Each structure stands twice: as C-alpha cells, then as structure tokens.
Amino acid sequence: MSEQVFDGMSIREHAGQVAESVRAINHLSLPWVVEESLPYPSDVAVVVAELARAAHGLRQATAQLADRIERLEQAGHIRDADPDPTHPDRAALACLLLSVSVAAATGRLATALDSAQQHLSCLACAEQTTLSTHTATPDTTPTAAEPTELRRLAR
Q1: Where are the residues of the annotated region Disordered (predicted)?
Q2: Would you give the DSSP letter of residue 9?
Q3: What's the pLDDT tens digit per position in 5-15?
Q4: Distance, CA of 49 to CA of 88 (rounded, Å)
Q5: What are the b/e assignments for 46-57, b being 16+ CB within 10 Å?
C-alpha cells in the first residue's frame, strides 16, 4: 500500500514541516532579527493572519485524525502497547482529546489570532502616513524603541 501524497509530501512530512515552520518563525521573530524582516505593523499583521489561517485548519485536521483512530479501533486494528489500568481505553481518550479538547483550544487560538490581526491591521508607524510602501527613508525608519512605546501606550 503506497502512502497518499499532496504536493509530493506525505501527511507525516507535512506535519513535520508545520513544526519546522513554527520553529523558523520563532527564530525569525527574535528581537535582533525581526526588525529587518517585519519593519511595519502591517507586516506583523500578515504573519498573524497566516497563523490564524493555520489554527483554523488544525481543528479539521485533528478531528480527521481522531476519526482515523476510531475507525482503526472499530476494525480491531489497535491494541494498547503499554496497558495502564488508569487508562483502560486510550484510543477513546485520544479521540476525545483530539476531537473535543484540541478542537476547542485551536478554536480559541484561531479566534484570538483573528482578533489580534484585526487590531494590528489598524496600526501604523508613528513617523509614517502610509504602510503601503516599504521604502523607508532615514527620517522614517522605525526605531527599536517603537514597539515598546506602542505597548506602553496601549495599556
């Protein structure tokens, strides 16, 4: 049986790519790196919107994974490799966690990211009148202190 692929990658490879993408975002958003790659609030808003899009998709993905485990269990293809009397039905517990708990958490995450993106889309750099062009002059280049100042003013 050959594994199905999408864009030339398997589901396991795509899951690994998600993890690596988040890792890359974590590194690329470090303070000494992010000033160059995301100079404007609108740039941050775009990244947050993409993260929200991913979070919305996680709900469907985890529900489908739970469904896969349920079908494997119903067909008798699952056994507990490490029986534990405190968790006699790990397959059912895993399905419940994936389809209910994870779905609720990813729903809250997606909603929070959507809300943050909406607020971010209303922000502009104090020295600039437009964010549509990324051609900053020496007089309009955002400084490192701006994010701190914006957070202080938002309180």
Answers
A1: 131-155
A2: B
A3: 778 889 999 99
A4: 41
A5: ebbbebbebbbe
**What pTM did the predictor assign?**
0.71
For residue 115, give the amino acid letter. S
**Measured between alpha carbons, how far is 69 from 138 in angstroms, rounded to an integer?**
57
Chain center to CA of 72: 28
Distance between alpha carbon 133 and the CA centroid of its chain, in Å? 27
Domain borders along the chain are: 1-37, 39-125+137-148
CA distances from 122 to 2, 24, 42, 112 (A): 48, 26, 8, 16
The pLDDT value given to residue 149: 53
Report whether 142 contacts 127 (CB < 8 A): yes
Check residue 128 and give its pLDDT.
57
Q: Which two tokens stand for residue 61?
A: 């993905």
Q: Reduced to 3 states, what is the DSSP secondary structure of residue 99? A: helix
In the predicted model, residues of the chain with pLDDT beneath 70 are: 1-3, 128-155
d(CA 31, CA 80): 45
